[in-house]
């Protein structure tokens, strides 16, 4: 990773700059990766912004950000810590498109692991779309492996 990139935990004052990036990540996830059509994109954006604001004040959630030499946010990851199950979740990971391929996501994951360890969490889980090859590669490189648990996902289509 370039030495001009700095990683730090977000604070409430980062809201105005962080919220558009989080929203871009969610829109990318829904539209590009999941192929969904949003009925009301502006309502979706508004709701995402409210969520970011709420989670910046929530001790069990943390945004870790990558900043360039001009202190511009160029990537982030969102972490959930569940102290009851002693399990952490990487809930989101995003790097702006012009900054991809420089090891920023790898560094964000390394910092995420440090943060989880500091909370006494020793297992980290995440979900990634099978078709998201870039993300699969990043997680593979950073040591994440598919796992089986006791749950099976079931579905039934109901006629209208
Ligand atoms: C996935 C994403 C976070 C990767 O960020 P990044 O900073 O470019 O990743 P890194 O530079 O740390 O790459 C780590 C490894 O993955 C590989 N990789 C990254 N993007 C890749 C791609 N598009 N195709 C193939 N390999 C890729 C890199 O080559 C690198 O391996 P290397 O060390 O052998 O070169 C970024 O592409 C992104 O924001 N995508 C959109 C959001 C997204 O899909 N998030 C994941 C949600 S689960």
Mean pLDDT comes to 94
CATH architecture: 3-Layer(aba) Sandwich
Q: How many domains would you count in the coordinates?
A: 1
Sequence of strands across the biggest β-sheet: 1-2-3-4-5
Q: How many E strands?
A: 5
Tally of contiguous helical segments: 4
**Bound compounds, please?**
coenzyme A
Structure description:
By secondary structure, the chain is α+β, with helices and mostly antiparallel strands. The protein has a single domain, classed as Aminopeptidase (3-Layer(aba) Sandwich). It has 4 helices and 5 strands, in the order E-H-H-E-E-E-H-E-H. The chain has helices at 15-33, 41-56, 104-118, 133-141, and strands at 6-9, 61-67, 73-82, 87-95, 123-125. The protein has a 5-stranded mixed β-sheet with strand order 1-2-3-4-5, sandwiched between helices. Strand 4, helix 3 (104-118) and strand 5 (123-125) form a beta-alpha-beta unit. Helix 1 crosses helix 2. It is globular, with a radius of gyration of 16 Å. The structure holds coenzyme A. Residues 28, 93-95, 100-106, 128, 132-135, 137-138, 141 line the site of coenzyme A.
Notable traits:
five-stranded mixed β-sheet; alpha+beta; Aminopeptidase; binds coenzyme A; 160 residues
Short description:
With 160 residues, this protein is an alpha+beta fold. It has helices spanning 15-33, 41-56, 104-118, 133-141; strands at residues 6-9, 61-67, 73-82, 87-95, 123-125. Coenzyme A (COA) binds at residues 28, 93-95, 100-106, 128, 132-135, 137-138, 141.
